[in-house]
Amino acid sequence: MKPRRLAIILLVTVALGCGRRMESTVSGTLTVAGEPAPAGVEVEFLPRATEASPSKGVTDAGGRYLLRFNAYVAGAMPGDHVVSVTIPRISNPDGTPGGVAPGLERVQIPPEYSGPSSPLLQTVQPGRNVIDLEIPEAPPRSAK
Prior knowledge:
Blueprint: H1 3-19, E1 24-32, E2 35-36, E3 42-47, E4 55-58, E5 64-66, E6 79-86, E7 89-91, E8 97-100, E9 121-124, E10 127-130, E11 133-135
Parallel strand pairs: 1-10, 1-11
Antiparallel strand pairs: 1-2, 1-5, 3-4, 3-6, 6-9, 7-8
């Protein structure tokens, strides 16, 4: 076999092998107070293993999400995860906080479900995972 052809075959084999490192996919539906979450709610799986990479997804109009490591690679690390659910915040052009993204003003996620101390825990198995998530509605804000 010619050296150039061998080099191309080797390069393709290595590239395909590297892409198979993550063998778990995670998708599901996020519901808030029994209703599918609107488009734009962020779902993040934070691995409990410190050397593992987190994965993030964003809900569509039906509350469905698909976890991704980045824009090019879908998946999640197998193992135990803390699940963080957040409403994305936007910034004003001058950099000051501007509130929540349009269309998400009415969604009330309890604050304890955002971040690494969320009580929502899930285990990702190797292979295909369908993990539906249910978040209770946050209590109404008190008038001050």
